[in-house]
Amino acid sequence: MARKRRDRREADGLSSAHEEMKANPVDSQVVKEAHHAAGGSARMSLLILLAIFTCSASVMYLVYRNFPELPDDEMEKIKIPKDMDDAKALGIVLSKYKDTYYSQVLVAYFATYVFLQTFAIPGSIFLSILSGYLYPFPLALFLVCLCSGLGASFCYMLSYLVGRPMVYKYLTERAQKWSQQVDKHRDHLINYIIFLRITPFLPNWFINITSPVINVPLGVFFIGTFLGVAPPSFVAINAGTTLYKLTTAGEAVSWNSLAVLGVLAVLSILPVCFQKKLQQKLE
C-alpha cells in the first residue's frame, strides 16, 4: 500500500511539472535555449583549442622536418625527453651538432620549450637541465626564462579564450570572489607571482590557467613569470653542467639549493609585508 501511495505521489508530481511547463512555455523555452547555448559555447571552446593545438603541432612538425639530416640511430634520440636517460641521449646528439647547426638547434629548442609550456605538457624541466649542458650559463638562463615567460603567457591566453568564459558561466559567484581578492592585492601582484613561481606550493600549469580567470594582467603575469622562474632555473641549469652524472631530475636539487630558493621566496614577499605594516602604523 505504501509503495502504491508513493508511486501515485511521483506520478502526480510529474503531471504537475508537465502542467507547469505547459502553463509557462516561455520559461521552458528560455531554459532550453540556455542549455543549448551552454553546450554550444563548450563545443566552440573545445574546437578552438583543438584548432590551436593542431596549428602548433604543425609548426613543431615543420621544425622537426627542417632539422639537419642525421643518422637513423641519432634521429631516434631527437624527441621530447620523458626521463633523464632521454635527456642525456638528446644532449649528446645536440651538443655534437650545435656548433655546426647553431641556429637550427637553438630554434628547435626554443620552439619545443614554448610548445610544452603552452599546452602544459610535462618535460620542460629536462629541457631546462639540458640548456646548462648545451649553452653558456647567461644564455641558458635567459633562454629558459624567456621560453617559460612566453609559453606561460600563451597558456594564459588560451585559458582566457577558452576557459575563462566557461568558468564565469558556470562558477560566476566563485569567479567574482576570486577577482575581488585579487583586486585587494593588485598593487603587489608581481610579488605574489614571483613567490608562487619560486615555491612549489602550486604547479605552474595551475597558475597559468587560473590567472586570467582572476583577472591578473598579462603584462604583470609575464614579468612575474620571467623573474620568478629564474631561481629554480638557476638550479636546473647548474645541474645541467654535470648532466652525465644525473640519473633523475630530482638529483638536480640539493638541500643548499632548496635553502637558497626559500630565502629568495621570502625576499620576494617581504616588500608586501613591510608595506602592510607601514600602512597599519600610519592608520
Number of helical regions: 13
Strand content: under 5%
Distance between the termini: 72 Å
Overall strand count: 0
Report the C-alpha radius of gyration, rounded.
Answer: 26 Å
Mean pLDDT: 78
The secondary-structure element order is HHHHHHHHHHHHH
Q: Quick one: biggest sheet?
A: none
Helix content: over 70%
Walk me through what this model shows.
This protein is an all-alpha fold and about 280 residues long. About 80% of the residues lie in helices and about 0% in strands. The chain is built from 13 helices and no strands. The chain has helices at about 1-25, 25-65, 70-75, 85-95, 100-120, 125-135, 135-170, 170-185, 190-200, 205-210, 220-230, 230-240, 255-280. The longest helix is centred in the first third of the chain and has 41 residues, at about 25-65. The relative contact order is 0.09. Mean pLDDT is about 80; it is low at about 15-20 and about 20-40.
